[in-house]
């Protein structure tokens, strides 16, 4: 089986020097597929493809070009239902194409599988970048419907795709994400302390991880944190790790005030090795997101034996089970109460760390790859080549 892996976002992450959630998904899926190729699936070959010019070399090789400009292709596909001009060449090269990100090609002569993490552009357009959002939402829906089959990452996301986009349930497969095994490794104390010293931190802080964008709900987390007693805020500051996103005009000044008061830090983007050290030093990860298709930082925190405070909405209960402090993301008092409980309830904290660690072991990229390969085979059986 020759698989065309469309990895445009991964390529963009490589250029930018950091991986976002989709970049992690694509790279991890490829790595797990390669591992399966060496053992239980020797008949597969993965060939990278991407939109863009002068594509960078990835771990899987330099991608072949789908089209030099995705914007032109998505307009031609959405408005005129036109496939890629090089469809014939792609169909000769691969048996199936998997678009691992939201940049879904329309290709004639070969089935296309698309991973759609969530339906946020249609359900909550107010949370996405505001330039041309109506057109983007319409084109997103058109491209999703053009795929032969969809993969999503939680039952909640599948429900949203069925309910809000009218996708037939049988056209959607759920393949939960995995956690990188390195998150389970304990960092030597001297290494951890060196990272903390570099950022002028000491263990016991609250940790927020995520791009600064509306659905991550950092303003409500700040409201909850500011409601804590001053002594708690000084002893357990709020450390924010995440790149500046959009719609943050009122948020950035709040982060500056937090730093001025000595009650927190905004560290922007950090390398993965630093994130490991922070997860193994924090009192808790505070993940009160308004919407998640899965919530990968949650299981990464579980693997690192970091307590987790997480929203009790959207997909997060599927991932957390009973291992996290579940909170109402719209209620600052709910988040504050959980933060205080993490600090004061030692027995429950120990119990949930153990449950979380076991929970994390249930999510592997190898299992994600097995489920994905099963989808490929199912789709190919329904679309035999002429």
From TrEMBL:
Keyword Oxidoreductase: no
GO biological process: lipopolysaccharide biosynthetic process
Domain of life: Bacteria
Keyword annotations from UniProtKB, A to Z: Transferase
Keyword Endoplasmic reticulum in annotation: no
GO MF entry, a single one: glycosyltransferase activity
Domain Glycosyltransferase subfamily 4-like N-terminal: 91-181
Domain Glycosyl transferase family: 200-356
Gene3D superfamilies: Glycogen Phosphorylase B (3.40.50.2000)
Name the UniProt record assigns to this protein: Glycosyl transferase family 1
Organism of this sequence: Pseudomonas graminis
């Amino acid at each position: 089986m020759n698989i065309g892996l469309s990895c445009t976002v991964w390529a963009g992450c490589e250029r930018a020097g950091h991986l976002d959630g989709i970049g992690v998904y694509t790279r991890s899926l490829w790595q797990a597929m390669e591992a399966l190729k060496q053992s239980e699936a020797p008949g597969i070959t993965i060939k990278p493809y991407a939109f863009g010019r002068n594509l960078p070399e990835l771990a899987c090789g330099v991608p072949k070009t789908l089209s030099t400009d995705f914007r032109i292709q998505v307009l031609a596909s959405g408005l005129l239902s036109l496939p890629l001009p090089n469809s014939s060449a792609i169909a000769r090269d691969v048996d199936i194409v998997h678009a691992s990100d939201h940049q879904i090609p329309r290709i004639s002569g070969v089935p296309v599988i698309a991973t759609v993490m969530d339906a946020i552009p249609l359900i909550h357009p107010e949370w996405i970048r505001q330039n041309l959002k109506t057109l983007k939402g319409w084109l997103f829906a058109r491209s999703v419907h053009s795929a032969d089959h969809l993969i999503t990452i939680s039952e909640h996301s599948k429900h949203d795709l069925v309910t809000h986009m009218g996708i037939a349930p049988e056209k959607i497969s759920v393949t939960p994400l995995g956690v990188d095994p390195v998150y389970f490794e304990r960092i030597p104390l001297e290494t951890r302390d060196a990272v903390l010293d570099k950022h002028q931190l000491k263990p016991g802080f609250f940790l927020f991880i995520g791009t600064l964008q509306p659905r991550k709900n950092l303003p409500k987390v700040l409201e909850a944190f500011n409601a804590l007693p001053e002594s708690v805020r000084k002893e357990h500051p709020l450390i924010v790790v995440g790149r500046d996103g959009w719609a943050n005009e009122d948020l950035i000044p709040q982060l500056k005030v937090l730093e001025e008061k000595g009650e927190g830090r905004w560290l922007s983007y950090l390398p993965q090795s630093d994130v490991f050290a922070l997860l193994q030093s924090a009192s808790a990860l505070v993940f009160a997101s308004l919407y998640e298709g899965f919530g990968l930082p949650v299981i990464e925190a579980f693997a690192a034996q970091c307590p987790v405070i997480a929203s009790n909405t959207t997909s997060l209960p599927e991932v957390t089970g009973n291992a996290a402090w579940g909170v109402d993301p719209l209620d600052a008092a709910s988040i504050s109460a959980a933060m205080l409980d993490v600090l004061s309830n030692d027995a429950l904290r120990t119990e949930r760390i153990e449950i979380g660690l076991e929970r994390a072991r249930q999510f592997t990229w190898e299992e994600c790859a097995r489920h994905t390969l099963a989808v490929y085979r199912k789709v190919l059986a329904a679309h035999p080549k002429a």
